[in-house]
Write a structure and sequence with these properties.
single chain; 385 residues; alpha/beta; Rossmann fold; 2 domains; six-stranded mixed β-sheet; five-stranded parallel β-sheet; 14 strands; 43% helix
Length: 385
């Protein structure tokens, strides 16, 4: 197991909450992490039919087996269990008693809000970050190989063909889960929708255009996109426009949370294909935005990420809204850093004034350094200050 940054977060919250909930996409390592950090606790999965039936028909008896608590995997399968867990933790008051995991944030969060508000710490675990891979000396040497493989732990724990595993992942998990949540009837249409979303990663979200190309209504496209968000497949990056003028874009940008999955859906299978693909730059931007989001989640904080673009197309790819001010981050896949790459940053700095701090350019350059007051970071060190 590659050590996970969120392990320290779990160690912190177990003493302050009776319930700890770990959520994230399928196969992101939630169960492995929970069993490693809470090795003393018994484990049960509600993906197992007999355990699911037991929990649904006799929740009191189901929980009575573990007076000191347990790890309950895929807990969203039995919604009624949340109220019983609430009663159990309220009666006993022991911290860190139950550890819940789930991969469908849409239903999971609804039940936590209803039954476990104030009782459960929420830890969002995304696939492996570059920082985690680097600490384990598992980062692919080449950038294109990194983008193609992505961060799902299975691809680093076993000898697997990434393209084949990711194709299986799409069929085994995404299509099944989405059909369970939203009753998708036409699977081929949903597959087209998924591929079109992948081709739009790191682009402004035009929901009307996406629906039209898929051949569905705009309301259906919105519903399917919400399911992909809740399943941690995509992430919508909002624009930042407070106090920076009104002539800015107000639409969010769409990002996949794993570049390997996005590349697989685009039909890219080899580094040679990716090297000349027109969306290589978009995949690089997707990789880096994902790194900053993972860094936030692994510390137990919600996203503080935005982007900025004015009405003539000048853009800063990321703004980190931090207590000390706004940190602008430009993301370029070029290995050669030229003065032209700083154009968007300088424009934004002129608009932001005193709100700006520590501007950063993340690129495919072979080293990190400072140039004209801007921190240039190689992709392996994107989130380092």
């Amino acid at each position: 197991m590659i050590p996970r940054s969120a392990a320290s977060l779990l160690g912190e919250v177990r003493s302050g909450y009776p319930v700890i909930t770990i959520t994230g996409p399928r196969q992101s390592g939630k169960t492995t992490l929970a069993r490693a950090v809470f090795a003393e606790k018994p484990y049960v999965s509600l993906e197992t039919p007999d355990e699911r039936e037991f929990a649904a028909t006799d929740p009191r008896g189901f929980l009575a087996r573990w007076r000191d608590g347990a790890i309950i995997d895929e807990v969203q399968h039995v919604p009624a269990l949340f109220s019983w867990i609430q009663s159990e933790v309220d009666a006993v008051g022991t911290m860190g008693r139950f550890v819940l995991t789930g991969s469908q944030n849409f239903s999971l969060m609804a039940h936590i809000t209803q039954s476990l508000a104030g009782r459960s710490a929420l830890v969002q675990l995304l696939p492996l970050s570059i920082a985690e891979l680097s600490a384990a000396e598992c980062v692919p040497d080449e950038l294109d190989a990194m983008m193609l493989r992505g961060g799902y732990p299975a691809l680093y724990a076993r000898s697997l063909n990434p393209a084949r595993w990711l194709a299986d992942y799409t069929m085994s998990y995404l299509e099944r889960d989405v059909r369970q949540i939203s009753q998708v009837q036409d699977l081929s249409t949903f597959q087209r929708f998924l591929r079109l979303c992948a081709g739009r990663t790191a682009q402004l979200l035009n929901l009307s255009n996406l629906a039209q190309e898929t051949g569905i209504s705009q309301s259906t496209a919105r519903a399917w996109l919400s399911v992909l968000e809740a399943s941690y497949v995509v992430f919508l990056l909002p624009p930042h426009h407070r106090n920076l003028g009104k002539r800015v874009v107000k639409m969010p940008k769409l990002y996949f949370l794993d570049t390997g999955l996005a590349a697989s859906l685009m039909g890219i299978q080899t580094p040679a294909q990716l090297a000349i693909h027109p969306l290589r730059g978009a995949l690089f931007e997707t990789l880096i935005v994902g790194e900053f989001l993972k860094a936030r989640f692994n510390r137990g904080f919600p996203s503080n990420l935005y982007f900025w673009r004015d009405n003539v197309g000048l853009e800063v790819d990321l703004l980190l809204d931090e207590p000390e001010g706004l940190c602008p981050v430009e993301i370029k896949s070029s290995a050669t850093v030229t003065d032209d790459l700083f154009k968007g940053l300088r424009k934004w700095l002129s608009v932001a004034g005193d709100a700006a701090r520590l501007p950063r350019l993340v690129s495919a350059a072979p080293e990190s350094y400072t140039r004209s007051g801007i921190n240039v970071r190689k992709w392996q060190e994107a989130t380092k200050g």
